[in-house]
Amino acid sequence: MASLYSINKGVSKPIVFKGLKAQYIAYLAIGLVLLLVSFAVLYISGLSLFLVLPLILLLGTALFMVTFRLSHRFGEFGLMKFLAKRSLPVSIRFRSRRLFTTLKHPKTYSQN
Asked: Number of folded domains in the chain?
């Protein structure tokens, strides 16, 4: 008796939606929610719609452009690698050798 098993070939592939890869989908979604909340706050606070609407449209356009640019430039894990590399020190300086001279060497046991 033969069993049929389907093979999922997309297990290790990143999620892609309209050209956005992996975490950039979440960045765009969070940005859009923040834009919606900021529009509501500005409109309820009494600012003119002729002032609020162009501001939100401009910020939304910038959000889309930056998110798509980051997605195409860095890919799935590139932004995290880029930020991690920036946080590494260029060089390490030691002003004293005391740290190394006071280290104890492990005892070597002879086979008798």
From this structure: 1
